[in-house]
Amino acid sequence: MCTYVTEHVEITGSGKGANGWFKVSEASVYFDHPADAPLEHSLNIDFLQPELGPSARVAVELDAASAARLAQAILSTLARVPDGLSGS
Amino acid sequence: MSDQLLAETVKIKGFAGDDIEAYFARPTGPGKYGSVVVIHHMPGYDEATKEITRKFAYHGYQAICPNLYSREAPGASSDDAAAAVRARGGVPDERLVGDVRGAADYLLAQSASNSKVGVIGYCSGGRQTFLSACSLDIDAAVVCYGAFIVKEPPAELPSSAKSIIHLAPNASCPILGLFGAEDKYPDVDEVAQLDAELTKHSKEHEFHIYDGAGHAFFAVDRPSYRPEAAKDGWEKIWAFFGVHLAG
After folding, report:
1. By the CB < 8 Å criterion, does B190 face chain A?
2. Distance (Å, rounded) from C-alpha B37 to C-alpha B65?
3. I want to staple A42 with a disulfide (CB 3.0 to 4.6 A). Which of A9, A34, A76, B155 is the partner?
4. What is the distance between the alpha carbons of residues A61 and A48, in angstroms, rounded to a whole number?
5. CB-CB neighbors (< 8 A) of B147 in chain A
6. Does residue A63 have a pLDDT over 60?
């Protein structure tokens, strides 16, 4: 199935792609066919800088359970950040 | 039949006269050949689809796969291009029809053309093949597990694809449909509805539903690959195109 389930998130930071580091301004999170992972469907995340074109993309394709663990790890890591550091 | 073939990237005129990229494979021996437009799946104009295009040339057809994502991502890798296009909800139907028309015209203009042209597509390309068969004057169409022909996509999916079953009366050619019994999009109920609609309008068609197969059973590089269904499916395709395109 070609799902188009997608969330777009504005982000600030950098990603490392095929040509080195670049600023990223947007992330797409979607569940669909992977391009490479040996799965029928996967949770895919693209870190993007649309101004630089479609090739300015850092991509990951994860099985659903891995993606859930990753999301939990991000949230638990952020929860342990000392006060005053998360905005730096 | 010689097994010599030539495959290369060419520029063709697509929708609105746009220059788009396409992968063109053809037998190099003397003679006239039927033509096939290959519509790639949503993951894009990729290595697997180019392999399918060459397979048609090996079997004695001029085949071309237009890069439906040429405009959004010129020069980008197929996966980057697919990511950019899917984020926008896919390819608009009107543009798809124009690109397929341009690809068919390119094949028919070749000196080796026998003036017959068919279309085949997989996954989202299956729906787009049905759309092409109902929008263009072609000689044969093969729909491989195309969803959202009959049913609308679930409301939570921001897909630009809409049901096109109302176009069935316009089908210009015989249609071969190849589906998996375990597929959910389309499920066997949707396939049965499409079958009934084509029958109702006296449109020549032949549907096969493979037990033990789900979506994308032809995809040799994915876990969904089902060799028995794919092998039989290919035999059905050669027989179908042999009747309607060859000679």
Report:
1. no
2. 6
3. A34
4. 15
5. 1-2
6. yes
ipTM confidence = 0.81
Which two three-digit tokens encode residue B48? 């697997």
Query: Do B86 and B157 meet the contact criterion of CB atoms below 8 Å apart?
Result: no
B143-193 per-position pLDDT tens digit:
999 999 999 887 766 667 889 999 999 999 999 999 999 999 999 999 999
Which of B132, B131, B11, B146 lies closest to B70, judged by CA? B11
Rounded to a whole number, what is the distance in Å from the CA of A78 to chain B's nearest CA?
Answer: 28
Compute the residue count for chain A.
88
Mean pLDDT of chain B: 95
pTM of the model as a whole: 0.92
pLDDT of residue B247 exceeding 80: no
Residues 6+ apart with CB under 8 A from B77: A55
Q: Measuring CA to CA, which residue among B135, B138, B149, B147 is closest to residue B198? A: B149
Q: A35 and B82: CB-CB below 8 Å? A: yes
Q: What angle do CA B151, B131, B164 make, to 5 degrees?
A: 30
| Cβ neighbourhood burial of B70 (10 Å; 0-12, 13-18, 19+) | buried
Which strand ranges, in their side-by-side order, compose the sheet holding B61-66?
B5-13, B19-27, B61-66, B33-39, B113-122, B140-144, B175-180, B205-210
- CB–CB of A1 and B215 under 8 A? yes
